[in-house]
Design goal:
By secondary structure, the protein is of the alpha+beta class. The protein has helices at about 10-60, 100, and strands spanning about 65-70, 70-80, 90-95, 105-110, 110-115, 125-135, 135-140.
């Protein structure tokens, strides 16, 4: 009686077929979870940039602005702390491209949100910033008192 070693081609093809079917059914859920995670990360980054803008305005008693340029977000401040010829604006922290980093799209009614040296929004109005990724959407609401509501 000979002892056989290994697996037959039919056994291997059965395992590969079952594994492929499992991946086929699981892929939409994995993709959806990744999109939701990217959306959450973009929203958290946006919230951190809001905090950076408000804290910088209070800490240094100067006007800061959260600027939206497409899907790119940056914080600027005036006047400059260290004078440089030809420039009156400081960039506070790094510039974040949420489209490249997370595939997110930013939609807002304002091109920028300015914070007074007391940490209040300069126009004292509520601003909603929508973050979307494919079919998923979330938002951040900034009150006139400079608070992050949601």
């Amino acid at each position: 009686m000979s002892r056989r070693r290994g697996y037959s081609l039919i056994e291997l093809m059965t395992v590969v077929t079952i594994a492929s079917l499992m991946m086929l059914f699981a892929w939409p859920r994995v993709r959806q979870a990744k999109f939701k995670s990217d959306l959450r990360s973009a929203r958290m980054t946006l919230g951190a940039m809001f905090g950076r803008a408000r804290a910088s305005s209070i800490q240094y008693s100067r006007t800061t602005t959260l600027v939206f340029n497409g899907n790119t977000v940056l914080v600027t401040a005036t006047p400059r702390l260290a004078p440089v010829a030809g420039s009156t604006i400081d960039t506070v922290g790094s510039i974040e491209d949420l489209g490249t980093a997370y595939g997110a799209t930013i939609t807002t009614g304002a091109a920028a949100i300015a914070f007074s040296p007391r940490g209040l929004t300069a126009d004292n109005g509520t601003v909603t910033v929508k973050v979307s990724h494919d079919e998923f959407q979330d938002s951040i609401v900034i009150s006139g008192f400079g608070r992050l509501l949601r």
